[in-house]
Description:
Elements: H1 15-24, E1 29-30, H2 31-41, H3 48-55, H4 59-70, H5 84-102, E2 105-106, H6 113-134, H7 141-150, H8 155-161, H9 163-175, H10 180-187, H11 192-203, H12 207-218, H13 220-230, H14 235-243, H15 246-252, H16 257-268, H17 276-289, H18 293-311, H19 344-358, H20 367-380, E3 385-392, E4 397-404, E5 414-416, H21 421-428, E6 431-435, H22 440-444, H23 449-454, E7 460-467, E8 470-478, H24 486-510
Parallel strand pairs: 1-2
Antiparallel strand pairs: 3-4, 3-8, 4-5, 6-7, 7-8
Helix pairs in contact: 1-11, 2-3, 3-5, 4-5, 6-7, 6-8, 6-16, 6-18, 7-16, 8-9, 9-10, 11-12, 13-15, 13-17, 16-17, 17-18, 19-20, 19-24, 20-24
Amino acid sequence: MPIETKVPAQAPRTLEAWVKLLESVRIPVPKHSYDRVMAAIHDSRRSLRDIAELMQDSPALVLSVMREANHPTNASQAEPAESLEVALNRLGLERSEQLLKRLPSVPVEEIPPVLSQFQLISQHASQQASGLFASRLARLWQEIHWGSLLFLSPLWPLALAYPKLLDTWELRVIHKGEDAAHVEEELFGVRIMALCQTMAEYWRLPQWVTQGYRLLLEEREQLAQVLSIARDEDLLSQQHRLDAEPGLRRWFNQPANTVLLANNLALAAQVGWDNPHLLRWQLLTALYLQTSLEDVQQQVHQQAAASARRHARHALFHPAEALIWPWHQRRPHPDMLAPPPPSSDDLARWRKLCQHLLAQPSPFTNTVHLATQALEALQACGMQRILLLSLDKASDYLRVQQLAGLPKEAGTMALQVSQNKLLQKLLAQAGQLRITPENHTQFSALLPAPLRALFRSEHVLLRSLAVNDQVLMLMVADQGCRPLADISVQAFGKTAQCTERALSVFANRKG
Length: 511
């Protein structure tokens, strides 16, 4: 069964709208897991525990069963099911089979990578929780295991519906360190943790899941107090300080906190093993387990390796890979790396397009035709998001003539030159501006607001083109917010020269 997720192009902006949309998203199940579970349901020799063990290899399947069992119209008891086995008992085999038949089943390679990556993080968190805490809290191992696996599950339908939003959030908040509140308000209209808490409560997920979000949202002061104690390098002093505040000690030592600790360890490790976020949660875990930081780090590394052996997949990042890296090395977000240079075929096409631009007499019937050729040349040399704006001298506006890689609405954009000093400078004479991380703060603020909204990047090229010292066109391009490849920057400059020459030849022909 194919994935049938149709979502509006415009993401919701309120909690209510997000809940309504995410509730409607059907998360796909890997076909191999689907087939194995369906076969087990039809096998009279299999127990519910056997079926539950098979299901746990598919986080999406676990979530679907837990949601169905805990749905207000289906729940046979007031308390939500805390484990998959209990959920299966409530549903029974027949209803479980009916549920499976409603779920999309696809080959694992067809599941969107952002969704697969978040599910891998959840599986890693579950392994960390089991390895670090389950043996010490043996009677609660199911609550620890399933709570850890499902803690991030509110993000799974979001990763399926709007993968680019989550990817952008990771880039800006996790890797670039931008203010989370500002970024989340801009991207989602709501705070991520508040959305996760609301979805967890709506789905009636295990209590330890909702309790973890409540701690992050409403009990941050206590968390900060505990972290202050955890930073004390003297273990005996740590215990004395905790004993001096029995209320804080009871609050911190709740078994439900294991779910939160494990998930934050797994999330923070996505960047690398030497980062302040990971250290913070390792310190808290060491305090919880009443052991040293070094011991916790060793255990966390061991559990990461164990998770990788079981869960790692091609094309997905698992933190265990980074265990063999130099200690201070961190995993960059893909958008923080320059794209590969254009292929030889693309460069050959680029040269051909540039030769066509330079042809005499001009082969173009109008400037739109010419701009289309320039756009294709820029794409061939590796530019991914492109705006070509022509100057309307009568109104002193720059209007979009061609675009690529940007929303269609951008085509209606008009920029008044007289209202922006940077545009005035670019249009005073032909020139080029390259926005880099070093000058981004200076120049980004000077861009017209509509242009700044389209190109939220630290790597942008702007080039004004002139004929007879009169600027006629402005080129704006980047490589999808990623650092610019040197060869693409050089080709951009050459393309601009060819386009400028083509405009000159075309103007003289018309004259």
